[in-house]
Write a structure and sequence with these properties.
Number of helices: 4
Number of strands: 13
Structural class: alpha+beta
Strand order of the largest sheet: 1-9-6-11-4-3-2-12
Strand content: 25-35%
Oligomer: single chain
Shape: globular
Largest sheet: 8 strands, antiparallel
Order of helices and strands: EHEEHEEEEEEEEHEHE
Helix content: 10-25%
Length: 207
């Protein structure tokens, strides 16, 4: 069942999607301010040159950091994800963070609980915390998406578990035993629940 209300994939103009991203970032900044967390200084511009962030091989994808919680005072983490055909992570649950996807190229199929979102270039999808979700590229070209995580913190899991991408032009390697062992060892510390690929819909409240 494709969802349009609870987890909307917004087919809209780039400007509308940008407004969606700005609203989510503003919400994260307000929440952080209420909690006494400092975000971007109002009087300081920031420029992140393309491809200058750390990059890591995830399960079937390349993740390039754009800005982390260290720069945003914990408000949010932003990355670009490249997912080749057939790539994507197994089902998992984030207990602490919401995720937002703005697809830049190709298509991604995201399953969120009982719902399925088919997101193509220009689409936006919001995935709330506490609900199982995998995603996969069923297309024939590499999919690229901006991934916004609110609040920040999940980037520390990625940098601890994933393998550094020395050659970013290579195809993503298959997850090795060492990566899987690291993921299983530290996932609970980051509020992350790892699930088998063929698990059924599951939410945090059903655990």
């Amino acid at each position: 069942m494709a969802t349009q209300t609870i987890y909307p994939a917004v087919e809209s103009s780039d400007e509308a999607v940008s407004q969606d991203l700005r609203r989510i970032i503003q919400h994260a900044e307000v929440s952080s301010a209420d909690a006494g967390v400092n975000t971007f200084p109002e009087d300081r511009a920031r420029h992140v040159p393309a491809g200058s962030g750390a990059a890591y091989w995830g399960p079937g994808s390349l993740m390039t950091f754009i800005v982390t919680g260290k720069e945003t005072g914990g408000a949010f983490f932003l990355a670009e994800m490249s997912v080749p055909p057939g790539g994507g992570p197994p089902p998992h649950i984030h207990q602490r963070e919401d995720e937002s996807f703005h697809v830049l190229q190709g298509t991604l199929t995201l399953r969120v609980g009982d719902d399925t979102i088919a997101a193509s270039a220009g689409d936006f999808a919001f995935l709330p915390r506490g609900i199982e979700h995998p995603f996969k590229n069923h297309g024939d070209v590499t999919a690229k998406a901006l991934v916004l995580v609110t609040p920040a913190g999940l980037e520390n899991y990625f940098s601890e578990v994933f393998d550094p991408a020395v050659d970013r032009t290579a195809a993503p390697p298959l997850p090795g035993k060492e990566l899987i062992a690291r993921a299983q060892s530290v996932s609970s510390r980051y509020g992350l629940v790892l699930l088998p690929r063929h698990s059924g819909p599951k939410s945090e409240s059903s655990k």
